[in-house]
Amino acid sequence: MTLAATELCLRAATVALLLVLAASLVSDFGKVLAGRLTIAFALGSAAHAMTASIGAGAPVSAGHAPLIALSTGNIVVFWLFTRALFDDAFQLRWWHGPIWAAVVAFSFVNCMWFAPGGNARTAIVMVNLLVLVFIALAVAQTITAWSADLVERRRRVRVFIVAASALYGGMNAVLQIAYAGSRVTVEWANLLNVAVLTGLVAAITSAMLRVDGADLFTGSPEAVVLNAPPAAAEDSADRKLVDALMRLMADERIYRHDNITIGTLASRLKIPEYRLRRLINQRLGYRNFNVFLNNHRIEEAKAALADPTQAEVPVITIAMDAGFQSLGPFNRAFKATTGVTPTEYRRLKVSAA
Q1: What angle do CA 276, 33, 289 make, to 5 degrees?
Q2: CB atoms inside a 10 Å sphere around CB 326
Q3: 231 Cβ contact partners less than 8 Å away, ≥ 6 residues apart
Q4: Fold designation for 3-216
Q5: Comparing C-alpha atoms, which of 133, 253, 190, 236 is closest to residue 4?
Q6: Which CATH architecture fits 232-352?
Q7: By CB neighbour count within 10 A (0-12 exposed, 13-18 middle, 19+ buried), where does 2 fall?
Q8: Where are the domains of the chain?
Q9: Pair 85, 141: CB distance under 8 Å
Q10: What is the pLDDT along the chain (353 residues), one digit of tens a residue?
Q11: Distance CA 300, CA 56 (A)
């Protein structure tokens, strides 16, 4: 079998696997944001599998350019997918759509007008530098947020998905830049690129199948994990640790501290970090450490908002005192928990008094 035929078979297999993966997620997780972004990421990756090429090739046709543009725009989807994967409370903002559309439009214009005008190398370099920027954003997001995931197996799978995708995306972008403007299509590079993509898609699909989809694509940050009851000795030790943890939260209000991490809390309790993760997850029912902290912060804020003596205290002051860094995240977390905004909550409590 020739290199070209092997490459074509790998592309077809990759596209088929991605389409099957996307279709399998629609019915069960089509209403969950992380699930929808995974579906979009899979479809964009299928477009990439059909169009990715290292070095020179035939001029891009009007029918081919939209697929290339969607493939390029998929890097924005990857960034959003990463955020949703590690932040159960993540929500799409109005400006995410225009960012995606701008990247897609930029790629389309490059394909149709800029590159054919004798600027092929510049066009390829610009697009792939943009790709590397979004990969860096996704990796930074993962580094920042991965430790807050309290479900061990899920966290490992999520990190693998993001790390493998980022490594492939980075490799592809570097190859594109290295061979930008080349007068020949580098067959070995194309075959390697497609082979790695096929292996990556197969590995990610396999990893996802080994984890409960309801865990991987959490629909609500308040979702509780059901676990088998611990042994009696472990139960007694865990109760003592839970009591110590709750004293830190209630008496010292450690959730108010800046940049509080699960590692910091584990050090205060003098236990390994993995044990604290398991304790908060299995004994208290939280999947995410930030949700655990925010629930305590919101309870303090609710008490302050309902207190008639604090009726004149600005909402932002209450939010900052409770440990939130800004008003926006506080408002979103508060409404997600109570169903109303902080101002509405205060008004309801005042009218009920």
Answers
A1: 15
A2: 10
A3: none
A4: Rhopdopsin 7-helix transmembrane proteins (1.20.1070)
A5: 190
A6: Orthogonal Bundle (1.10)
A7: exposed
A8: 3-216, 232-352
A9: no
A10: 688 899 999 999 999 999 999 999 998 888 889 999 999 999 999 999 999 887 655 577 788 899 999 999 999 999 999 999 888 778 899 999 999 999 999 999 998 888 877 787 888 899 999 999 999 999 999 998 888 889 888 888 999 999 999 999 999 999 888 887 665 556 787 888 899 999 999 999 998 888 777 777 765 544 444 344 444 445 788 889 999 999 999 999 999 998 899 999 999 999 999 999 999 998 998 988 998 999 999 999 999 999 999 989 999 999 999 999 999 989 989 998 899 999 999 999 888 76
A11: 61
Q: Which two tokens stand for residue 296?
A: 């305590």
